[in-house]
Amino acid sequence: MSAEQVTTRRESAVTRSVSALDNFGYRLQRLPLHLVIIIICAIWIVPTLGMVINSFRSLQDMGVAGWWTTLFPPHGFTLESYKQVLAIEGVAPSILYSILITIPATVIQLSIATMGAYAFAWMKFPGRNLFFIVIVGLMVVPIQMTLIPVLQIFKALHLSGTIISVWLAHSGYGLPFEVFLLRNYLGGLPREIFESAEVDGAGHAVRFLRIAVPMTIPAIASLTIFVFLGIWNDLLVALTFLGVSAYRPFTVVITGLVTSFGGGWQFLTAAAVLQMALPLAVFIFLQRYFVRGITSGSVKG
Amino acid sequence: MDQIITAVVAVVGVPLVIFGYIIGGEQVIERLPGRLQGWARPYFWALPAVGFATIFMVYPMVRTAVISFRNSEDTDWVGFANYHYFFTFPDTLTALRNSVAWLIFYTFFAVFLGLVIAILVDRVRYESLAKIAIFLPVPISAVAASIIWKFMFDYQAPGTPQTGTLNAVLGIFHGDPVPWLLDEPVVNNGALIFVGIWTAVGFCMVIISASLKAISTEVLEAARIDGANEFQIVRLVITPLLWPTITVVGTTMLINALKTFDIVYVMTNGAYETDVIATRMFSQLQSAHYGRAAAVGVVLFIAIVPLLIVNIRRFQQQEEQR
Questions:
Q1: Residue B285: band (very low, low, confident or very high) from pLDDT cuts 50, 70, 90
Q2: Is the pLDDT of residue A79 over 70?
Q3: Which domain holds residue A225?
Q4: Are residues A223 and A194 in the same domain?
């Protein structure tokens, strides 16, 4: 989105619909536009804002009045909900388990995907197109189609309920998309670089590790963020493979509390805020990579 | 503590293993005779990725298809009994109905609102700020989004103070509080689908907006000089030009709609007729009705096949253009 484009478009609109004198009329005419945008933005922000505010209120306050009453004195902000949530057995460790699941799973699948993508981008072999079409197809296969046999595989390998099992499952499910994306990126690198390296006697190992990987870092960075948050936010895979395990991650534990609490679930807002703090921080500080990771898959693919 | 050590070992170890695999494998391959070398190398490189995909996706898909024709204990063939159950049992039919509703309404509104918002914010100076607001729900997990919206939909008996935002707003206009997530299937499914839309619009908007910026200003300028008003420009110029992007985003949304699980599972767990195919499958899985669960998985897969074909076609077209 270039800034000039936006301005030229706006200026042309101005010259078109405004004779030099009635700037005010033009402003008035645009008022509905601003109103609509502001209302939509409010619908998209208020729910999250309301819950964050609620997480800093006492359970008692939440029971008798909505979050908006807190905007006026007496505010009555408190960290009670956070203390209460973290005191529940299993909540604090589940945050650790989420980290222990997410980081290795991300590293494993991206290492394997980068290597595979290199083969698909820069090597010719019989069946390459067929293999790759299968990979494109696998990108949309619902994981529900695979859950039962994968459960059985883990059982046979004595991995049921271990953290290792979800690393492997996430890696398997994430690979098609990652190979697809990285192969497109790697395939777009200039051919001459690889050819001149080959002429200089560099084998595939050198070309991959010294040329392909360093040049793919921007794509890998975006993908890392995307994959990392996908696993951090995942519920279905964790619920299926760790639902009854001692290593339930944060999302599973929160969900368990929400469904089991019935009436007094309100203090779980604190848990939700803790759970979404990481994704929101990543989004705010690494916005460019984040959005690129999300768009690159669909715009090109 | 053990888990931490295992995780650290994995984070450091896996890239090292891959590194060793590449270096060691290349050492071996380079010693092979020329023709064999050219044949073996690509497969050696593709093996880990293809292997993972085969073990965790291709083989399980075939196996799920087989299981769907077997009984719960996987001891005998039952023909189409599991499918017959799926298409006749009232609860699964409800799930099927709801998934169709998700497919239609979630997809349409997510894409439509994404398009409208992208076009609207393109015309104001605070565009990037507005986009951040709309995009905010995207990085938030469905679990957190569900808790967020449980508060929005919170319902207290009429006459008591409404702590839920929506019912409080209704109260201002002297409307009766609505039990959003309780027993009215049109209301509760609508409410859940809306939460889905809320989390998805930002995604659609960002992608559509990227294509919108690529439309040359001359085209729009020409239309304006020809006397088209803004609505005509959007309808007759912008939308047709964005159509390829809209179909891409639409396909993604259709797939998301079919796979919907988290929001329904956390907010209602399928109560009051809000089940969808994916939550239905999960409850069959939990009650160890593997045959039935597998049949639900197969139905879900078959529903996605047309989209899968569309995706592959699009991929092949792009390959031809490379």
A1: confident
A2: yes
A3: 89-300
A4: yes
